[in-house]
Specification:
Order of helices and strands: HHHH
Radius of gyration: 15 Å
Number of domains: 1
Largest sheet: none
Length: about 110
């Protein structure tokens, strides 16, 4: 269950990052509100996962999901560049996340 909570926290990080971009520097009300609400929920779920998981594991997985997720949303939704080097970097992050999960006792 703790890993499910952590994954949801990471996915919420992707949501708030996307809506932060849409808020145009917090000048648009609805995207700004969505950013703040999902940010709070993401932090809250991360803190719940840290009750069981080590800090390094929880934080690394959370930021990794957010980073790769935001990268994917940038490419798919916002039309950002998908070069071979950027895709390789994302693959390395995912590899690190898998290794972090495999090395966890939980």
């Amino acid at each position: 269950m703790v890993w499910f909570i952590l994954v949801i926290a990471g996915l919420l990080e992707v949501v708030w990052a996307f809506f932060m971009k849409q808020s145009e520097g917090f000048t648009r009300l609805v995207p700004s509100i969505v950013t703040l609400v999902t940010m709070g929920a993401s932090f809250g779920l991360l803190s719940l996962s840290m009750r069981t998981l080590p800090l390094g594991t929880a934080y690394t997985v959370w930021t990794g999901i957010g980073a790769v997720g935001a990268f994917a949303v940038g490419i798919v939704v916002l039309g950002e560049q998908a070069s071979l080097m950027r895709l390789g970097a994302a693959a390395l992050i995912v590899s690190g996340l898998v290794l972090m999960k495999l090395s966890s006792a939980h």
